[in-house]
Amino acid sequence: MIKVHGALARITRNFGWLYTSHSFSFGGYFDPGNTEFGPLRVFNDDRVQPLKGFDFHKHEEMEIVTVVLRGELQHEDTLGNKTVTRAGEVQRMTAGTGIEHSETNPSALEEVELLQLWFTPDEEGLTPSYEQAAYDLDSRKNEWVPVVTGRPGESVAGDGMKPARIHQDLTLYLAELEPGQALTFSQKPGRRMYVFVIEGSATADGAYKLSRRDAARITEQERLELHTETGARLMLIDLP
Length: 240
Fold this sequence. Notes:
Layout: E1 2-5, E2 11-14, E3 18-22, E4 40-48, E5 53-59, E6 63-70, E7 72-77, E8 82-86, E9 89-94, E10 99-104, E11 112-119, E12 129-134, E13 145-149, E14 164-165, E15 171-177, E16 182-186, E17 192-200, E18 202-204, E19 208-210, E20 215-218, E21 223-227, E22 232-239
Protein backbone atom coordinates (compact mmCIF):
# COMPACT_ATOMS: atom_id res chain seq x y z
CA MET A 1 0.00 0.00 0.00
CA ILE A 2 1.32 3.42 -1.00
CA LYS A 3 0.16 6.56 0.76
CA VAL A 4 1.37 9.85 -0.70
CA HIS A 5 2.01 12.82 1.59
CA GLY A 6 2.36 15.95 -0.54
CA ALA A 7 4.85 18.70 0.24
CA LEU A 8 2.04 21.19 0.87
CA ALA A 9 0.50 18.90 3.50
CA ARG A 10 3.50 19.44 5.77
CA ILE A 11 3.37 21.97 8.59
CA THR A 12 5.61 24.89 7.63
CA ARG A 13 6.90 27.49 10.08
CA ASN A 14 8.94 30.64 9.44
CA PHE A 15 10.96 31.95 12.38
CA GLY A 16 12.95 34.44 10.32
CA TRP A 17 16.29 32.74 10.95
CA LEU A 18 14.77 29.31 10.26
CA TYR A 19 12.30 28.15 7.63
CA THR A 20 11.19 24.61 8.42
CA SER A 21 8.65 22.03 7.24
CA HIS A 22 7.62 19.11 9.47
CA SER A 23 6.46 15.81 7.99
CA PHE A 24 5.56 14.44 11.47
CA SER A 25 4.39 15.94 14.75
CA PHE A 26 7.16 18.16 16.09
CA GLY A 27 7.53 21.02 18.54
CA GLY A 28 4.33 23.04 18.68
CA TYR A 29 2.67 20.91 16.00
CA PHE A 30 0.94 17.77 17.24
CA ASP A 31 -1.27 15.44 15.24
CA PRO A 32 -2.06 12.19 17.11
CA GLY A 33 -2.46 10.43 13.77
CA ASN A 34 0.93 11.54 12.46
CA THR A 35 3.59 10.87 15.08
CA GLU A 36 5.69 8.11 13.54
CA PHE A 37 6.31 5.66 10.72
CA GLY A 38 7.97 2.65 12.27
CA PRO A 39 11.03 3.98 14.14
CA LEU A 40 10.99 7.21 12.08
CA ARG A 41 9.78 9.96 14.43
CA VAL A 42 10.92 13.25 12.88
CA PHE A 43 11.55 14.38 9.31
CA ASN A 44 12.27 18.11 9.13
CA ASP A 45 13.20 20.06 6.01
CA ASP A 46 15.17 23.10 7.24
CA ARG A 47 16.76 26.23 5.81
CA VAL A 48 18.94 28.16 8.27
CA GLN A 49 20.03 31.74 7.60
CA PRO A 50 23.71 32.84 7.67
CA LEU A 51 25.35 32.91 11.12
CA LYS A 52 22.19 31.53 12.74
CA GLY A 53 21.27 28.14 14.14
CA PHE A 54 20.23 25.96 17.03
CA ASP A 55 22.00 26.79 20.30
CA PHE A 56 23.13 24.05 22.70
CA HIS A 57 20.23 21.80 23.69
CA LYS A 58 19.88 18.27 25.01
CA HIS A 59 18.63 15.01 23.50
CA GLU A 60 18.21 11.54 24.94
CA GLU A 61 17.35 8.08 23.55
CA MET A 62 17.25 9.09 19.89
CA GLU A 63 19.29 8.52 16.73
CA ILE A 64 19.55 11.83 14.85
CA VAL A 65 20.60 11.92 11.19
CA THR A 66 21.32 15.14 9.30
CA VAL A 67 21.76 15.27 5.52
CA VAL A 68 23.15 18.59 4.27
CA LEU A 69 21.78 19.45 0.83
CA ARG A 70 23.37 22.86 0.30
CA GLY A 71 25.81 25.03 2.23
CA GLU A 72 27.57 24.13 5.48
CA LEU A 73 26.45 23.11 8.97
CA GLN A 74 28.71 23.41 12.01
CA HIS A 75 28.21 20.86 14.77
CA GLU A 76 29.47 21.10 18.36
CA ASP A 77 28.65 18.78 21.24
CA THR A 78 29.52 17.95 24.83
CA LEU A 79 31.68 15.04 23.66
CA GLY A 80 34.16 17.57 22.33
CA ASN A 81 33.28 17.21 18.64
CA LYS A 82 33.41 20.31 16.45
CA THR A 83 32.86 19.59 12.76
CA VAL A 84 31.45 21.11 9.58
CA THR A 85 29.13 19.01 7.41
CA ARG A 86 28.76 19.95 3.74
CA ALA A 87 26.63 18.85 0.81
CA GLY A 88 27.63 15.26 0.03
CA GLU A 89 28.04 14.47 3.72
CA VAL A 90 25.81 13.12 6.46
CA GLN A 91 26.07 13.11 10.23
CA ARG A 92 24.69 10.63 12.76
CA MET A 93 24.39 11.42 16.44
CA THR A 94 23.42 8.82 19.04
CA ALA A 95 21.86 10.76 21.92
CA GLY A 96 21.69 7.68 24.14
CA THR A 97 21.88 8.52 27.84
CA GLY A 98 22.16 12.22 27.02
CA ILE A 99 24.11 14.66 24.88
CA GLU A 100 24.01 18.42 24.29
CA HIS A 101 24.80 19.86 20.89
CA SER A 102 24.44 22.91 18.69
CA GLU A 103 23.93 23.11 14.92
CA THR A 104 24.72 26.46 13.27
CA ASN A 105 25.34 27.95 9.85
CA PRO A 106 28.94 29.24 9.87
CA SER A 107 28.60 31.14 6.59
CA ALA A 108 28.09 34.89 6.62
CA LEU A 109 26.65 34.83 3.09
CA GLU A 110 24.76 31.63 2.29
CA GLU A 111 21.92 29.78 3.98
CA VAL A 112 22.28 26.08 4.72
CA GLU A 113 19.64 23.61 3.58
CA LEU A 114 19.31 20.28 5.35
CA LEU A 115 17.10 17.35 6.18
CA GLN A 116 17.06 16.16 9.79
CA LEU A 117 15.58 12.80 10.74
CA TRP A 118 15.09 11.25 14.17
CA PHE A 119 14.76 7.52 14.76
CA THR A 120 14.15 5.57 17.94
CA PRO A 121 17.15 3.32 18.67
CA ASP A 122 16.93 -0.45 18.88
CA GLU A 123 17.92 -0.27 22.55
CA GLU A 124 17.98 2.32 25.31
CA GLY A 125 20.90 3.43 27.45
CA LEU A 126 23.41 3.68 24.62
CA THR A 127 26.63 5.63 25.05
CA PRO A 128 26.34 8.96 23.22
CA SER A 129 28.42 9.19 20.03
CA TYR A 130 28.83 11.21 16.85
CA GLU A 131 29.87 10.24 13.32
CA GLN A 132 30.23 11.97 9.97
CA ALA A 133 30.35 10.22 6.59
CA ALA A 134 30.68 11.22 2.93
CA TYR A 135 29.03 9.83 -0.19
CA ASP A 136 29.26 10.46 -3.94
CA LEU A 137 26.10 10.22 -6.02
CA ASP A 138 27.74 11.55 -9.18
CA SER A 139 29.90 8.43 -9.52
CA ARG A 140 26.97 6.11 -8.85
CA LYS A 141 24.05 7.52 -10.80
CA ASN A 142 20.88 5.46 -11.20
CA GLU A 143 21.51 3.25 -8.18
CA TRP A 144 20.68 3.25 -4.49
CA VAL A 145 23.62 4.46 -2.41
CA PRO A 146 23.45 3.57 1.31
CA VAL A 147 24.55 6.57 3.40
CA VAL A 148 23.32 5.49 6.86
CA THR A 149 22.74 1.90 7.96
CA GLY A 150 22.40 -0.36 10.94
CA ARG A 151 23.12 -3.47 8.91
CA PRO A 152 26.55 -5.09 8.61
CA GLY A 153 27.81 -5.44 5.10
CA GLU A 154 26.20 -2.33 3.60
CA SER A 155 28.94 -0.20 2.00
CA VAL A 156 29.44 2.66 -0.40
CA ALA A 157 31.65 1.61 -3.31
CA GLY A 158 34.58 3.75 -4.38
CA ASP A 159 37.23 5.73 -2.54
CA GLY A 160 36.75 3.72 0.64
CA MET A 161 33.62 5.63 1.66
CA LYS A 162 31.38 3.87 4.16
CA PRO A 163 27.89 4.74 5.39
CA ALA A 164 27.39 6.12 8.87
CA ARG A 165 26.33 3.45 11.37
CA ILE A 166 23.03 3.74 13.21
CA HIS A 167 21.57 1.78 16.13
CA GLN A 168 18.46 0.56 14.34
CA ASP A 169 17.57 -2.06 11.73
CA LEU A 170 17.26 0.40 8.85
CA THR A 171 19.15 1.72 5.85
CA LEU A 172 18.84 5.20 4.38
CA TYR A 173 19.60 5.36 0.66
CA LEU A 174 20.06 8.29 -1.71
CA ALA A 175 19.92 8.14 -5.49
CA GLU A 176 20.56 10.49 -8.40
CA LEU A 177 18.20 9.28 -11.11
CA GLU A 178 18.78 10.56 -14.64
CA PRO A 179 15.91 11.50 -17.01
CA GLY A 180 14.11 8.48 -18.39
CA GLN A 181 15.61 6.10 -15.84
CA ALA A 182 13.96 3.85 -13.26
CA LEU A 183 15.01 2.20 -10.02
CA THR A 184 13.47 -0.69 -8.14
CA PHE A 185 13.78 -1.62 -4.50
CA SER A 186 12.91 -4.92 -2.83
CA GLN A 187 12.66 -5.76 0.86
CA LYS A 188 11.55 -8.57 3.11
CA PRO A 189 7.88 -9.02 4.06
CA GLY A 190 6.59 -6.99 6.98
CA ARG A 191 8.93 -4.04 6.48
CA ARG A 192 8.22 -0.43 5.47
CA MET A 193 9.59 1.99 2.89
CA TYR A 194 9.68 5.77 3.19
CA VAL A 195 10.38 7.65 -0.05
CA PHE A 196 11.14 11.37 -0.27
CA VAL A 197 11.73 13.36 -3.46
CA ILE A 198 14.53 15.82 -2.70
CA GLU A 199 14.60 17.33 -6.19
CA GLY A 200 12.78 16.64 -9.44
CA SER A 201 9.83 14.30 -9.79
CA ALA A 202 9.13 10.59 -10.04
CA THR A 203 6.30 8.10 -10.42
CA ALA A 204 5.92 5.18 -8.01
CA ASP A 205 4.71 1.89 -9.48
CA GLY A 206 3.46 3.69 -12.58
CA ALA A 207 0.54 5.28 -10.76
CA TYR A 208 1.60 7.56 -7.91
CA LYS A 209 3.11 10.86 -9.02
CA LEU A 210 5.61 12.43 -6.63
CA SER A 211 6.87 15.99 -7.05
CA ARG A 212 9.65 17.88 -5.29
CA ARG A 213 9.47 17.37 -1.50
CA ASP A 214 6.58 14.90 -1.73
CA ALA A 215 6.82 11.70 0.33
CA ALA A 216 5.33 8.22 0.12
CA ARG A 217 4.82 5.85 3.05
CA ILE A 218 4.73 2.28 1.81
CA THR A 219 3.56 -0.80 3.70
CA GLU A 220 2.52 -4.37 2.88
CA GLN A 221 4.55 -4.41 -0.30
CA GLU A 222 7.91 -6.00 -1.00
CA ARG A 223 8.86 -4.28 -4.24
CA LEU A 224 8.72 -0.69 -5.46
CA GLU A 225 9.59 0.90 -8.80
CA LEU A 226 10.37 4.59 -9.19
CA HIS A 227 10.61 6.14 -12.66
CA THR A 228 11.45 9.69 -13.66
CA GLU A 229 11.01 11.52 -16.95
CA THR A 230 12.83 14.69 -15.93
CA GLY A 231 15.40 13.42 -13.42
CA ALA A 232 15.18 13.17 -9.64
CA ARG A 233 17.23 13.06 -6.46
CA LEU A 234 15.56 10.55 -4.15
CA MET A 235 15.75 9.28 -0.60
CA LEU A 236 14.47 5.83 0.36
CA ILE A 237 14.52 4.44 3.90
CA ASP A 238 14.11 0.70 4.44
CA LEU A 239 12.45 0.46 7.87
CA PRO A 240 11.28 -2.30 10.21
